[in-house]
Amino acid sequence: MSNDRYSMSFTTGGLFIPESVQLAVLYRDLGDWTAVREKVLTENLLQARTMNTLKRVCHEVISRLKTLRSDELDFFIAASHQEQAYLLWVAMCRRYKFIADFATEVLREHYIVLNSDLTYEDFDAFFNRKSEWHTELDGISQATRSKLRQVLFKILREADLLTADNRINAAIFSPGTLQLIYRGGSRELMYFPVFESELKGMA
């Protein structure tokens, strides 16, 4: 059994790109995540239909943005849509080790061996394999497991790492995004479907 327990609380929504940009800008202005949360909840800045939804989305977005360094947040605010999507994918992998492991052991491995199809069966096989070492996965119901799978595939599509028919898209980095990722440690390139040899000389 692994002592590094998986957090599996990513069933809310998807990548949340516009919401993340909005909260990142707010954090730049206020300089405090608690103040950001209070302002979002008080003024319903995310225009959620219910307070529960607002709280859930706000908590989820902030928990991801907190994984980004100050230089990454600054870059994120001014970045293109695709650059923002890639940075949020990095944030997801930092926030959720389950997603990071899936990204490196399934998504990238498929790409490297030229298997461009990613299926729900791949997710299920990965989940079952990890449950042998992570007993916390045993308590997850089939319905929640299906939701986790659905949300993860949705996030991959929103990050443009997966097509609508579940084929893997190679990551195409701008020099600025690549430099940021290298600054955080080149191992984070493993979260993406990309050959490292293609990146030499770009960062």
UniProtKB/TrEMBL annotation:
- Source domain of life is Bacteria
One of this protein's Pfam families, by short name? Answer: BrxA
Q: What is this protein called?
A: DUF1819 family protein
